[in-house]
Design goal:
The chain is built from 4 helices and 4 strands. By secondary structure, it is an alpha+beta fold. It has 2 domains: 69 residues, GIY-YIG endonuclease, CATH 3.40.1440.10; 48 residues, no CATH class. Helix 3 runs antiparallel to helix 4.
């Protein structure tokens, strides 16, 4: 039997994000829902807004660590599956082209681009400007 590993993103009641990984998503979400899994997710209620399967625990952890460092706007783009915006926010601000990606000057998403629950794929390396897989360096 092959064990699946999940990477997931929760939205807390205050709008903040929590990123995690697990080999039992249903159990972990129940723990978060009870305020038991992590100090950050005691900001109840929490909502699962994105998740995906990773081929190994190492790759799940590597992707979790990468996403934790992302800006709020980039996480919102992941949640909505907007790879163009993920790629846009992967670039340093001074290298971002002037586009109409639905952002204001600070890079925050406009209200009309609110996130929806979405099961999506890991961010392709080329979107983030990387050439290696999820487990590689960023």
């Amino acid at each position: 039997m092959t064990v699946q590993f999940w990477v997931y993103l929760l939205r807390c009641w205050d709008g903040s994000f929590y990123t995690g990984h697990t080999d039992n998503l249903e159990k972990r979400l129940a723990e978060h829902g009870e305020g038991l899994a992590a100090d950050w997710t005691r900001r109840l209620p929490v909502e699962l807004v994105w998740c995906d399967i990773a081929p190994s625990r190492e790759e799940a952890l590597a992707f979790e660590r990468r996403v934790k460092n992302w800006s709020r706007a980039k996480k919102e783009a992941l949640v909505t599956g907007d790879w163009e915006k993920v790629g846009h926010f992967a670039r340093p601000p001074h290298e971002r082209p002037s586009t109409s990606l639905g952002t204001n000057e600070s890079g925050a998403l406009r209200e009309d681009n609110s996130p929806t629950e979405h099961l999506s794929s890991f961010v392709p390396s080329e979107v983030e400007g990387r050439t290696s897989d999820v487990g590689g360096s960023s």
